[in-house]
Amino acid sequence: MAILIVVVLWAADLTAVIPLAVLAGIALKVGINIIDWGFLKRAHRISPKGSVITYGVILLTVFVDLIVAVGIGLFVANVMTVMRLSELQAADVKAVTDPDSTDIELTPYEKDMLQEAGNKVLLLYMRGSIIFGASRAISRKNSEVEGREALVVDMTDMKHLGVSSALALEQAILDMVRAGRAVYVAGAGEQPRKRMENLGLLEYIPSRHFQDTRAGALQLAVFGPVGTANADMQGENENAETADPEG
After folding, report:
1. Nearest 5°: phi and psi at 125?
2. What is the pLDDT of residues 96-155, one digit of tens each?
3. What is the pTM of this model?
Protein backbone atom coordinates (compact mmCIF):
# COMPACT_ATOMS: atom_id res chain seq x y z
CA MET A 1 0.00 0.00 0.00
CA ALA A 2 2.84 2.38 0.88
CA ILE A 3 4.56 1.68 -2.45
CA LEU A 4 1.34 2.32 -4.33
CA ILE A 5 0.86 5.66 -2.54
CA VAL A 6 4.43 6.68 -3.41
CA VAL A 7 3.94 5.73 -7.07
CA VAL A 8 0.65 7.60 -7.37
CA LEU A 9 1.80 10.78 -5.59
CA TRP A 10 5.45 11.19 -6.58
CA ALA A 11 6.28 8.73 -9.37
CA ALA A 12 3.34 9.27 -11.69
CA ASP A 13 5.59 10.62 -14.43
CA LEU A 14 7.72 7.47 -14.35
CA THR A 15 4.76 5.07 -14.51
CA ALA A 16 3.02 7.05 -17.25
CA VAL A 17 5.36 5.60 -19.87
CA ILE A 18 4.53 1.98 -18.94
CA PRO A 19 2.36 0.45 -21.72
CA LEU A 20 -1.23 -0.39 -20.78
CA ALA A 21 -0.71 -3.92 -22.06
CA VAL A 22 1.95 -4.46 -19.40
CA LEU A 23 -0.31 -3.07 -16.67
CA ALA A 24 -3.14 -5.28 -17.91
CA GLY A 25 -0.90 -8.34 -17.70
CA ILE A 26 0.09 -7.47 -14.15
CA ALA A 27 -3.54 -6.95 -13.16
CA LEU A 28 -4.48 -10.28 -14.75
CA LYS A 29 -1.72 -12.09 -12.89
CA VAL A 30 -2.70 -10.53 -9.55
CA GLY A 31 -6.37 -11.32 -10.17
CA ILE A 32 -5.63 -14.97 -10.89
CA ASN A 33 -3.47 -15.30 -7.78
CA ILE A 34 -6.11 -13.91 -5.40
CA ILE A 35 -8.85 -16.25 -6.62
CA ASP A 36 -9.67 -19.06 -4.21
CA TRP A 37 -9.78 -21.87 -6.77
CA GLY A 38 -10.47 -24.51 -4.12
CA PHE A 39 -13.65 -22.74 -3.07
CA LEU A 40 -14.78 -22.09 -6.65
CA LYS A 41 -14.60 -25.80 -7.41
CA ARG A 42 -16.83 -26.64 -4.42
CA ALA A 43 -19.02 -23.53 -4.26
CA HIS A 44 -22.05 -25.18 -5.87
CA ARG A 45 -21.90 -28.02 -3.31
CA ILE A 46 -21.27 -25.86 -0.25
CA SER A 47 -23.97 -23.26 -0.93
CA PRO A 48 -25.96 -23.14 -4.19
CA LYS A 49 -27.22 -19.63 -3.45
CA GLY A 50 -23.75 -18.46 -2.47
CA SER A 51 -22.28 -19.91 -5.68
CA VAL A 52 -24.83 -17.99 -7.76
CA ILE A 53 -23.72 -14.76 -6.09
CA THR A 54 -20.05 -15.63 -6.54
CA TYR A 55 -20.33 -16.50 -10.22
CA GLY A 56 -22.59 -13.52 -10.83
CA VAL A 57 -20.07 -11.12 -9.29
CA ILE A 58 -17.29 -12.63 -11.42
CA LEU A 59 -19.30 -12.22 -14.61
CA LEU A 60 -20.30 -8.66 -13.75
CA THR A 61 -16.68 -7.81 -12.94
CA VAL A 62 -15.48 -9.08 -16.32
CA PHE A 63 -18.27 -7.79 -18.56
CA VAL A 64 -19.59 -4.72 -16.71
CA ASP A 65 -17.64 -3.04 -13.90
CA LEU A 66 -15.96 -3.97 -10.63
CA ILE A 67 -17.85 -1.39 -8.56
CA VAL A 68 -21.20 -2.45 -10.02
CA ALA A 69 -20.39 -6.11 -9.40
CA VAL A 70 -19.42 -5.54 -5.75
CA GLY A 71 -22.47 -3.34 -5.11
CA ILE A 72 -24.94 -5.81 -6.60
CA GLY A 73 -23.24 -8.75 -4.89
CA LEU A 74 -23.41 -7.09 -1.46
CA PHE A 75 -27.04 -6.10 -1.96
CA VAL A 76 -28.17 -9.58 -3.00
CA ALA A 77 -26.14 -11.22 -0.22
CA ASN A 78 -27.67 -8.92 2.43
CA VAL A 79 -31.20 -9.58 1.17
CA MET A 80 -30.62 -13.33 1.33
CA THR A 81 -29.15 -13.02 4.82
CA VAL A 82 -32.18 -11.07 6.07
CA MET A 83 -34.56 -13.63 4.58
CA ARG A 84 -32.65 -16.49 6.16
CA LEU A 85 -32.57 -14.77 9.56
CA SER A 86 -36.30 -14.14 9.31
CA GLU A 87 -36.92 -17.82 8.68
CA LEU A 88 -34.70 -18.89 11.59
CA GLN A 89 -36.05 -16.36 14.09
CA ALA A 90 -39.66 -17.02 13.15
CA ALA A 91 -39.33 -20.17 15.27
CA ASP A 92 -38.40 -18.01 18.28
CA VAL A 93 -41.70 -16.11 18.18
CA LYS A 94 -44.85 -18.07 19.03
CA ALA A 95 -48.46 -17.03 19.58
CA VAL A 96 -50.28 -19.38 21.93
CA THR A 97 -53.96 -19.60 22.81
CA ASP A 98 -54.35 -23.38 23.01
CA PRO A 99 -51.85 -24.97 25.44
CA ASP A 100 -52.26 -28.36 23.75
CA SER A 101 -51.07 -27.10 20.35
CA THR A 102 -47.71 -25.60 21.29
CA ASP A 103 -44.24 -26.93 22.03
CA ILE A 104 -43.55 -24.32 24.72
CA GLU A 105 -42.82 -25.95 28.07
CA LEU A 106 -45.80 -24.78 30.13
CA THR A 107 -46.42 -25.80 33.70
CA PRO A 108 -49.71 -27.57 34.51
CA TYR A 109 -50.95 -24.39 36.22
CA GLU A 110 -50.14 -22.28 33.13
CA LYS A 111 -51.94 -24.77 30.91
CA ASP A 112 -54.97 -24.69 33.17
CA MET A 113 -55.08 -20.90 33.04
CA LEU A 114 -54.88 -20.81 29.24
CA GLN A 115 -57.65 -23.38 29.02
CA GLU A 116 -59.69 -21.34 31.49
CA ALA A 117 -59.20 -18.25 29.32
CA GLY A 118 -60.89 -19.99 26.39
CA ASN A 119 -58.90 -18.30 23.57
CA LYS A 120 -59.55 -14.88 25.09
CA VAL A 121 -55.90 -14.47 26.13
CA LEU A 122 -53.05 -14.49 23.61
CA LEU A 123 -49.62 -15.51 24.90
CA LEU A 124 -46.88 -14.00 22.71
CA TYR A 125 -43.71 -15.96 23.52
CA MET A 126 -40.25 -14.76 22.42
CA ARG A 127 -36.85 -16.22 23.18
CA GLY A 128 -33.18 -15.56 22.51
CA SER A 129 -31.97 -12.42 20.75
CA ILE A 130 -34.96 -10.92 18.95
CA ILE A 131 -33.36 -8.72 16.29
CA PHE A 132 -34.49 -7.42 12.90
CA GLY A 133 -35.03 -10.90 11.49
CA ALA A 134 -37.90 -11.53 13.94
CA SER A 135 -39.81 -8.31 13.21
CA ARG A 136 -41.75 -9.93 10.36
CA ALA A 137 -42.71 -12.86 12.57
CA ILE A 138 -43.98 -10.49 15.29
CA SER A 139 -45.98 -8.56 12.71
CA ARG A 140 -47.59 -11.78 11.49
CA LYS A 141 -48.46 -12.84 15.04
CA ASN A 142 -49.96 -9.38 15.59
CA SER A 143 -52.87 -10.36 13.34
CA GLU A 144 -53.88 -12.94 15.96
CA VAL A 145 -54.62 -10.36 18.67
CA GLU A 146 -57.95 -9.50 17.07
CA GLY A 147 -60.81 -10.69 19.23
CA ARG A 148 -58.63 -11.28 22.31
CA GLU A 149 -59.33 -9.63 25.62
CA ALA A 150 -55.75 -9.63 26.85
CA LEU A 151 -52.20 -9.97 25.52
CA VAL A 152 -49.41 -11.53 27.57
CA VAL A 153 -45.93 -10.78 26.21
CA ASP A 154 -43.60 -13.47 27.54
CA MET A 155 -39.96 -12.27 27.70
CA THR A 156 -38.71 -14.74 30.29
CA ASP A 157 -36.37 -16.41 27.77
CA MET A 158 -35.48 -13.26 25.82
CA LYS A 159 -31.89 -11.97 25.97
CA HIS A 160 -32.01 -8.96 23.65
CA LEU A 161 -34.73 -6.94 21.92
CA GLY A 162 -33.62 -5.23 18.70
CA VAL A 163 -34.98 -1.94 17.39
CA SER A 164 -36.94 -3.37 14.44
CA SER A 165 -38.50 -6.10 16.56
CA ALA A 166 -39.28 -3.57 19.29
CA LEU A 167 -41.17 -1.44 16.78
CA ALA A 168 -43.17 -4.47 15.62
CA LEU A 169 -43.91 -5.35 19.24
CA GLU A 170 -44.92 -1.75 19.88
CA GLN A 171 -47.54 -1.97 17.14
CA ALA A 172 -49.02 -5.14 18.64
CA ILE A 173 -49.20 -3.57 22.11
CA LEU A 174 -50.70 -0.29 20.86
CA ASP A 175 -53.33 -2.17 18.85
CA MET A 176 -54.48 -3.87 22.05
CA VAL A 177 -54.37 -0.68 24.12
CA ARG A 178 -56.33 1.32 21.55
CA ALA A 179 -58.95 -1.42 21.47
CA GLY A 180 -59.35 -1.12 25.23
CA ARG A 181 -57.66 -4.45 25.93
CA ALA A 182 -55.13 -5.23 28.67
CA VAL A 183 -51.45 -5.97 28.04
CA TYR A 184 -49.23 -7.86 30.47
CA VAL A 185 -45.45 -8.41 30.29
CA ALA A 186 -43.67 -11.37 31.89
CA GLY A 187 -39.98 -11.62 32.74
CA ALA A 188 -38.78 -8.45 31.00
CA GLY A 189 -35.04 -8.12 31.58
CA GLU A 190 -33.12 -4.89 31.89
CA GLN A 191 -32.41 -4.43 28.18
CA PRO A 192 -35.91 -5.27 26.81
CA ARG A 193 -37.58 -3.13 29.48
CA LYS A 194 -35.22 -0.22 28.75
CA ARG A 195 -36.03 -0.54 25.05
CA MET A 196 -39.75 -0.45 25.82
CA GLU A 197 -39.21 2.56 28.05
CA ASN A 198 -37.38 4.42 25.28
CA LEU A 199 -40.31 3.74 22.95
CA GLY A 200 -42.71 5.17 25.51
CA LEU A 201 -44.60 1.90 25.97
CA LEU A 202 -44.43 2.09 29.76
CA GLU A 203 -46.94 4.93 29.55
CA TYR A 204 -49.54 2.50 28.19
CA ILE A 205 -48.79 -0.49 30.43
CA PRO A 206 -49.41 -0.11 34.20
CA SER A 207 -46.47 -1.08 36.36
CA ARG A 208 -48.55 -3.79 38.07
CA HIS A 209 -48.92 -5.48 34.67
CA PHE A 210 -45.19 -6.25 34.66
CA GLN A 211 -44.63 -9.62 36.30
CA ASP A 212 -41.46 -11.58 36.97
CA THR A 213 -42.96 -14.88 35.84
CA ARG A 214 -45.18 -16.09 33.02
CA ALA A 215 -47.56 -17.68 35.52
CA GLY A 216 -47.98 -14.34 37.32
CA ALA A 217 -48.79 -12.49 34.10
CA LEU A 218 -51.23 -15.19 32.99
CA GLN A 219 -52.94 -15.13 36.37
CA LEU A 220 -53.52 -11.38 36.08
CA ALA A 221 -54.74 -11.73 32.49
CA VAL A 222 -57.15 -14.56 33.26
CA PHE A 223 -58.34 -13.88 36.81
CA GLY A 224 -57.37 -10.25 37.38
CA PRO A 225 -55.71 -8.90 40.53
CA VAL A 226 -56.31 -11.03 43.61
CA GLY A 227 -57.51 -8.04 45.57
CA THR A 228 -60.09 -7.20 42.91
CA ALA A 229 -61.28 -10.78 42.75
CA ASN A 230 -61.73 -10.90 46.54
CA ALA A 231 -63.57 -7.60 46.50
CA ASP A 232 -65.92 -8.88 43.81
CA MET A 233 -66.63 -12.04 45.77
CA GLN A 234 -67.26 -10.02 48.92
CA GLY A 235 -69.66 -7.74 47.04
CA GLU A 236 -71.58 -10.72 45.70
CA ASN A 237 -71.90 -12.18 49.21
CA GLU A 238 -73.17 -8.87 50.56
CA ASN A 239 -75.76 -8.65 47.79
CA ALA A 240 -76.88 -12.19 48.52
CA GLU A 241 -77.29 -11.42 52.21
CA THR A 242 -79.29 -8.28 51.42
CA ALA A 243 -81.59 -10.17 49.08
CA ASP A 244 -82.15 -12.96 51.66
CA PRO A 245 -83.03 -11.41 55.08
CA GLU A 246 -83.17 -14.81 56.72
CA GLY A 247 -79.56 -15.37 55.77
Report:
1. -100, 130
2. 888 888 888 899 999 999 999 888 999 999 988 887 767 777 877 777 777 788 999 999
3. 0.66
- Identify which of 92, 73, 72 has the alpha carbon closest to the alpha carbon of residue 135: 92
Query: What Å distances lie between residue 42 and 34, 47, 77, 126, CA to CA?
Result: 17, 9, 18, 38
Q: Which CATH number fits domain 91-225: 3.40.710.10, 2.40.160.20, 3.30.750.24, 3.40.50.1980?
A: 3.30.750.24
Contact in structure between 93 and 137 (CB atoms under 8 Å): yes
- How far is residue 215's CA from residue 156's CA, in Å, rounded to a whole number? 11
Which phi and psi angles does 18 have, rounded to 5°? -75, 130
